[in-house]
């Protein structure tokens, strides 16, 4: 019994266990599939899973981020005729990793697999992954593109280089010897995932690396080679911002316990804002012969606006504001930064008049202003939960 259910039934009475088994209601394996505009891949994927797992009680949990092509609706239509198909639809949220985390937490199977919807991962490995987890002392089986026998398929050379560099950088936060820490295709014991879940960063695309770096104990691993297939329908969501998100994951795991990574990004964008401010002020005075007050106001407005948009795209990419909420967010941001600037000047002037060195007063004023802007905008502009 321990093998099939991962030992989870031990605490129930034998009558309960027997009825659960007789009804055979509870899936042994949940395959968590994040989706963003993957409508045409859903049916083929479920058909492939059906063919690949004939002797396993499995379910597939799609986690869709409100795709504009109505992927979620499509999944639910399929779910109405196939009880193994389930769907979580998230509204106003984005992110492959957080989608995977929520998918696992919404189900109860003792084994969970992570797989892309676009048919690029080799579903025929799933049965073998499950058998290894059920029969051997292994916590995590990884589908590897870099293990002997695996391959990247038809990837452009630049993407191969980026992937290889990312794999090297992964060693900064994951000490285990593993050929493909950036794989998006793996299966693990639920306990292994649950023991790390509160420490997961959830940043970006790399849920496997996040899991490896967040686990309280080294996971017992096995790697199985597979060939990464080409996408048939839809488009890849991997863009340059995914690289930024990868940096966010690395930063969070390296220094996130000291300072929140969002704050670091916010502060870096603040420095860019300062550079923008100074160049506009200088150009306004030098080339346009503006009065100082006018040039300074123009510079402040431009810097605040560009900071708002940069933060919206980079710092808060996972909850980016759009449409009317974008406009509303911009005005709350102006208001908050206005108060932040007043606090900054007020505190710096007070410290300076209290005989602090000019640069100590200046730096402390900037820090107070930045912390205020960050804290208030995270509550009122981007509403971090
Ligand atoms: N819910 C949700 N939210 N799903 C998303 C999001 C998101 O913000 N972004 C992407 N997805 C889904 C896609 O719909 C797809 O099912 C899967 O996540 C992978 O996205 P792709 O856009 O196909 O990524 P890729 O093929 O370039 O990269 C994949 O393979 C790499 C190599 O294994 C990802 O799995 C990477 O994490 C992996 O490193
Ligand atoms: Mn893909």
Question: What layout of secondary structure does this protein have?
Answer:
Blueprint: H1 2-5, H2 14-23, E1 29-35, H3 39-52, E2 58-64, H4 71-79, E3 85-89, H5 96-105, E4 111-114, H6 126-135, E5 140-144, H7 157-169, E6 186-189, H8 190-196, H9 207-214, E7 221-225, H10 240-255, H11 261-286, H12 292-315, H13 323-353, H14 358-381
Helix pairs in contact: 3-4, 11-12, 12-13, 13-14
The structure holds guanosine-5'-diphosphate-alpha-D-mannose and manganese (II) ion.
General description of the model:
The protein has 385 residues and is α/β, with parallel strands linked by helices. Strands 3-2-1-4-6-5-7 form a seven-stranded mixed sheet, sandwiched between helices. Strand 1, helix 3 and strand 2 form a beta-alpha-beta unit. Helix 11 runs antiparallel to helix 12 and helix 12 packs across helix 13. The longest helix is centred in the last third of the chain and has 31 residues. The structure holds guanosine-5'-diphosphate-alpha-D-mannose and manganese (II) ion (MN). The site of manganese (II) ion has 5 residues, from loops. The site of guanosine-5'-diphosphate-alpha-D-mannose has 24 residues, from strand 1, strand 2 and helix 5.
């Amino acid at each position: 019994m321990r093998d099939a259910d991962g030992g989870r039934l031990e605490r129930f009475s034998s009558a309960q266990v027997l009825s659960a088994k007789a009804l055979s209601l509870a899936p042994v394996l949940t395959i968590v599939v994040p989706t963003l505009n993957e409508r045409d891949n859903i049916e083929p994927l479920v058909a492939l899973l059906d063919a690949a797992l004939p002797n396993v009680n499995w379910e597939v949990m799609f986690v869709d981020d409100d795709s504009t092509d109505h992927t979620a609706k499509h999944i639910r239509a399929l779910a109405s005729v196939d009880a193994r198909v389930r769907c979580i639809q998230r509204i106003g949220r984005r992110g492959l990793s957080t989608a995977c985390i929520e998918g696992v937490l919404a189900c109860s199977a003792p084994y969970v697999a992570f797989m892309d919807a676009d048919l690029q991962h080799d579903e025929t490995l799933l049965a073998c992954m499950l058998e290894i987890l059920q029969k051997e002392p292994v916590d995590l089986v990884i589908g590897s593109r870099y293990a002997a026998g695996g391959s990247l398929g038809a990837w452009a050379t630049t993407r191969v280089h980026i992937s290889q560099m990312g794999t090297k950088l992964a060693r900064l936060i994951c000490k285990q010897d593993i050929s493909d820490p950036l794989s998006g295709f793996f299966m693990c014991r639920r306990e292994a995932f649950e023991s790390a879940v509160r420490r997961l960063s959830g940043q970006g695309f790399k849920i496997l690396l996040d899991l490896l770096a967040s686990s309280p104990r080294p996971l017992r691993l096995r790697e199985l080679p597979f060939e990464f297939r080409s996408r048939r329908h839809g488009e890849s969501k991997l863009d340059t911002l995914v690289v930024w998100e990868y940096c966010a994951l690395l930063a969070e795991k390296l220094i996130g316990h000291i300072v929140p990574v969002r704050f670091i990004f916010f502060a870096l964008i603040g420095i860019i804002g300062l550079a923008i401010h100074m160049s506009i002020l200088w150009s306004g005075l030098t080339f346009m012969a503006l009065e100082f007050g006018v040039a300074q106001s123009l510079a402040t407005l431009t810097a605040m606006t560009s900071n708002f948009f940069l933060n919206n795209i980079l710092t808060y990419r996972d909850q980016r504001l759009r449409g009317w909420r974008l406009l509303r967010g911009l005005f709350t941001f102006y208001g908050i930064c206005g108060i932040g600037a007043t606090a900054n000047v007020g505190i710096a002037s007070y410290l300076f008049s209290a005989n602090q060195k000019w640069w100590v007063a200046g730096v402390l004023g900037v820090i107070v202003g930045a912390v205020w802007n960050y804290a208030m905008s995270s509550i009122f502009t981007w509403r971090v939960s």
